[in-house]
Structure formats: C-alpha cells, structure tokens
Amino acid sequence: MTFPARILVVDDDPMVRKSLCGLLELEGHEVQVSDSVDGARDSLASSSFHLVLADVKMPGSDGFDLLKFTRETYPQTQVVMITGFGSIDQAVRAIKMGAHDYLTKPIMDEQVSLVLDRALQEHHSVETGGGFDDQGNGEDRLGSLIGRDHKMHQVFELMKIVADSRATVLLTGQSGTGKSLVAREIHNHSLRRDGPFVEVSCGALPDTLLESELFGHIKGSFTGALTDTQGKFEAAHGGTIFLDEISVASPAMQVKLLRVLESAEFQKVGGNKNVSVDARVVLATNNDLEGEVKRGKFREDLYYRIQVVTIELPPLRDRVGDIPVLAQEFLRAYNAKNGRHLAGYSPLTMHKLQHYSWPGNVRELENVVERAVILARGDQVTVEDLPASVVTFAEGPGPGRSAGLKASLADPEREIIERALSLHNGGRADTAEYLGVSRTTLYHKMKKHRLLKPRRARKEKSSK
Question: Percent of the chain, pLDDT > 70?
Fold first, then answer.
C-alpha cells in the first residue's frame, strides 16, 4: 500500500464489515465502520478520511446517495463502490458519478488491495498537487490512449468495466477525439483480444455498398457480384466489429443492424439463409443521436439497443492538461519517423498549444506536431514552427474586444479543411476519411466556408 490511511467502510452486512475491517487493519490502515448512509455522513463530518468503501445496496439511502454527498462535500476523499457480481450498469453509473473504482462481490483480498492502492495513490496526487509524469507512464495511459485529465480517467475506468462483457458500447464525441482508438483498446483489453478487430466507416460508403460491406453478398445478387463474398460481420466472428459514424445509416440499414444486434443473425445481400455470428459490437457517432431520434431520423428502438453503455470522449479543449503529454508523445513518434532529434517545446510554444481551441481535437494536434517536426530549424519546436491559426488564436482578439466563440472557431476550421484538401489534391473522399467525418459533413462545411469551386469553373477546367 502507498501509506497507512484512514478508511471508512460502509455496509449493512456485519460479516462484510468484519471481513473488510480485518483485512484493512492487517495492512496497517485505521478503519472505521458504519452500517448506514446516515451514519457514514456523521462519521465524515466528525473525522477526515482518505477513502470511503461503500456498498451500493443499503436500506434507506443507498451507496449512490453517499457517493454524491462525498464527492460534493469532501472532494479529496476517494470513494470505491461495492456492487453485485456482473452489475455492469451499477459500476458504470458509479464511475460516471465520480467513484474512483469499484469492487464486485464476492470480494477477493487481492482485488481489494489492488483497487485501494490505486485509490490512495490518487488521493495522494490530489492532496499534494502531484500528477502523472510526462513520460506517459502509470495511470495516464491505457494501451495507446493517453490522458491525465480526470475526464479521461473516467473513460479509462468505463473501458475496463465493459471490456470483458458482451454489452454493446456506444462511443460519442467530436471528430478527432479518438473513438477508433478507444474501440480498439476495449477489444485489446477484452477476452476477445486474440480474435479479429474489424473497423467499418459507415459514412465512407453509400447505403447500397454498405449493406454488402457489412453482411456480404451472394454471387449474381447484383451487377459485378461475380463470387460469394464475406462481409465484415463474418470477418469479425470471435472478435469485435467497430461501426463508426453510425448516425449516417439509412432507415433500411438501421432495421438490418437492429436485427443482427438482437438475434446475432443476418442474411447476405441476395441470399435467403440466416448466417449466425458471434461478434462484439462497438459503435461511434459525433452526432446527437437522441436529437436524431426526436427528429425521426434515427430509429428509437435501435438507439436504445446500442446505448447499453455510452462512453463520451471529451474534446481536447476540455482537457488542456493533457496537451503537454500528448504533444511530447507525438514529438517522440515523429522524431523517430523523420530522423529528427527535437528536444521539446519552447515555453511560449506550449502556451500557444494550450490556449488554442483545437476544433480538430487530438487528430489536429498530432498533425500540427508532425508539421512542426518537419519544419523546425532549431533543436526544439518554436512558435515559428506552428500554423498561423494556432498562433493568432492564442493571441486572442485583443483587450476589450471579443470575436465570439463561433467566429473564433471558423478560421481554424476553414484552414484545417483547406490544408486537408490540398494534402489530398482536392479529393473529397480521402479528405473526409483523413478528417474523420462523413463526405456529407465535409460537403456542408466546404459550402459553409465557401471552399466549393463554382460549377462553371469545374466545367471549364475539364474541357481544357
């Protein structure tokens, strides 16, 4: 354990209280017990505790009431919840409400020691103002994901909770926040890790091709169907299938997806035989699906079927503390890729990075760092190596003036799209994939920023 701690154990079962009290005292902790939420509130008011260990189910007020009270009144006190075996919904709710972790019954001694050790380390970090190191070690990393911000800690905990379950997971958040990486890490931390991980970008294909892509087709079912073809669901058998941009699926496709989610069966295009499949399904969207349901654009029954567990990824501007460690990680990667040896960032450069709005989120930060590594002339990244949009945004509109959030975000977004279009020679399909948006979304944004070429100009160019 990190250090001897004061721990409050709250459970209405005397056998559980006795067992936990004995284990914790053997490990050198000072333990106080309570059999109710009201008693726990009195204990918290009269003494300070490093950690509260509370059962969810208790008569009267339950553990969630105590969790809410503790997080609001004693924010430095860590809370670990005890849930029934297999109660994923309770564990998810606890983490979303601010619990550091959870234990499932029957409680094993090793599990208690591991969870409490992590919780007490976190308490020490909060109390001393410490944190994670800049090397991306410890709990600021889960596989390829990096985040020291508490919002990312919540994401990590939810991922670990759902990883070994069969529950369908819906990932939400803006483009560029890392939904694809989260889906892959859920797979990598699951019992299916040795099976395939199959990713499908639903927005990159028209509906007619998407059905064949997902479910496969029978020879002769349409022009060009020269052989029987396996779909992505079959390819993901025994593993995980990740369906990105699920909000663009047509009503007909939504019906087919609902069927495979409910029955684990589907029919190939042009076929009449049911095909069974065992695949964990993770979906993602950057749209408000609840709003889409209200507008009649997304099936309500499918929405409730896919949001069994929802994990929301925060935009980069809401986790500014993660920018230095992410920037350093990208710097190491692109140093190695380009044969460079840049030591880091000047203080002013890091200031600019942390005061930019990042409409393209982590993906945009990575692109900015890659550009800087290529262009840098000194031994570290300086302001001169950053795009003008990052530098001017960080400078702001000046004292006493406000450009407004919408206006401030417009220019950086336009520059990102222009840069991506140039990189892909104006190809919208490749540009949309690069930016992580659907072609429809890209078209509307190009129209908004007046990046669409006039029809006459396109015709004249093609005739020359």
Answer: 88
